[in-house]
# Entry
Amino acid sequence: MTTETIPVQSSILKKKLFLGLTISTVLVIFIMAFSFGLHMYNIEAIGDANAYYTAAVKSMLQSWSNFFFVAAEPGGSVTVDKPPLGLWIEAVFAYLLGVSGFSVSLPNILAGVFGIPLLYAMVKKYMGELAGLIAAFVMTITPVFVATNRNNTMDGLLVFFLLLAAWAFIQATESGKLTWLLLGAFIVGLGFNIKMMQAFLPLPAFYALYFFGSKEAWLRKMVNLGTATILLAVVSLSWAMIVDLTPADSRPYIGSSNNNTVMGLIFGHNGVSRLGSTGGPGGGALPSAPMAGTDSGQGIQPQQGTRQGPPQQALEACASSAQGDACSFTQQNGNTINGSCITPPNQSVLACAPQGMTPQQNGQSPLVGGLNGQGDGTQFSQETGEPGVFRFFTQPLSKQMSWLLPFALISVLPALFGSRVKLPIESAVHKSLLLWGGWLMTCVVFFSMVSGIFHSYYAIMLAPPLGAMVGIGFSQLWSWGRDRNWAGVLLVVMSAITLGFQYIAMDQYGENLWWMFPAGTLFVAGIILLFASKRMAYVAILSAMLVIPMYWTVMTVTSNPNINLPTAYLGSDQQVGLGGANRAFPQESGPASNVNEDLLAYLEANTQDVEYLLAVPSSQQGSSLVIATGRPVLYMGGFGGQDEVVTAGDLSAMVANGELRYVMYGGDRGGKQDIANWLSASCSVVQEFSQLSIGGPQMPQGENQPQGLGGGGPDQGTTLYLCR
# Structure
């Protein structure tokens, strides 16, 4: 080789690197644009998004006190049951764009889109461009990832912050600098101030990557991790300590806590209640659970566990049928529901329930539990299923993010044996496995076992490591396939298992199985191509596995979403969906119903000289009024009706001081008899607005169904009281 050829070869190498970089950059930008399109399509369908949080944002913009304490309503009676950072960010967007479901969801949408290059860069660092691109694309087409980001529940923001933290821990591992480690701990602490302890789920993987992957001395690494942990605790608890040190009479009541402290909220409702205990106020309250009661003339008698009934179409379908008979009906949105006739809870007539919801001996659907999902099954089991090793592989949770989970889990083994284990770990694949495999396995095990408060959209926590492990597993087989024929065989086996699960999962939701045809065709083509072109074969097999999750994600954004609790597409049968209350029957979904305009006009006309528009049992009845008017609405029982925000004595004093005039009551879940007795003794019924429907996700409006505070729905016995 002459000296003249060296510059030429160097120039060619630089051009190849630049071309590769350009192609990768273009592909990442394309994935981001595709993701943004998915997030934005049909975005108007989200309406006010989760009204509880949207109302809180509107309240926070009315005063600095409301902003800092994240007051749930403009009067500052009670806080949201979450820490502040996510809502602060949403409030900034709402300040700039105006309060709407879109503006408060936009931060989560942007977090999802900009999380894509983050994941790509981190996976690429250890496993190459192919793995990074696949990881980014898989996360993009994970249904729960898109569904949750198109909402204001703040989990999308949390995932973005955790991706930033993962990047900092990678830098700490490679550089050995304490500064990066402290930055990672600081960012996780910020994540704690978005969704509290949920932010700690990937922390074992972060710590393991640094401890086993950094080349520093073991003792020094332990000291550094100890220092980082101290910083993590300080940042995590900073807001909580400030609030708890503020006198209770100078701040709102801490919503869903058992002792009016943020620490009580952290370790109660947002702590042990997530594991399985639901004791204490707010422990098991659902975000939009309706409450009902009746006025017997001797004071309001709260009814426990009352639910909304089936839609009118479901009742009519079984009007002349017997228990167990086949039935079908068509919803207002055009979906046809096929099922059988059962006797719903708290009903004396038959109604048509979807297939798979056969009655038990007591005539109730096995998918219907007691209040908040308790009773015969684990609470929230309608939304997340029963605890166990197969939780992510059976309905109702399998539709959220599990479509590629078999491939991701099996990929752990090739990654584990892909290189010789050496401490400290030097192998790139083992560092990847510690970070992404550790994150994935921690979340899978934790969410599979918990029996407490667990919503299906929490599965977004698995989207980044799921994408990473799919990318890592496929890129390894791609690399090995150059000179090892068994790699192609292993890819076929892993893909066949994954496609088999996808077939079973689609059948679980009664979905059209013909969508498996293109996936199966690509899979068979991939097997054939193994004997001609390995690269084309690998691409075909990977494409086969991506067909169904992409279809399910597209259907998630094109079908009307569940706006209270975001979820992936429910399937053709629309079998199980929670709008906040336990539901055994399919509901029409879409933007939240408007408030009762007649009631609103009456209240507005008669409360101009008082502070509060109205007092209601919980935020579930008041959120829509806050959004509509921006007026203070007293949430007497906080988030779910169980908090001790006010007593009968407090209400009496507020009436005497001219702060409050009207109270809507009837079915406070907490059964606050003192308030019921005070209303009966001191207030008069406004006959025009007695026995109204109130709160919760609304049913399709049927004939002769009274319209209540939150829109259409069955008569639930709520009554407006005038107090002087």
In short: Confidence is low (pLDDT under 50) at residues 277-308, 356-376, 575-593, 694-716. The longest strand covers residues 336-342.
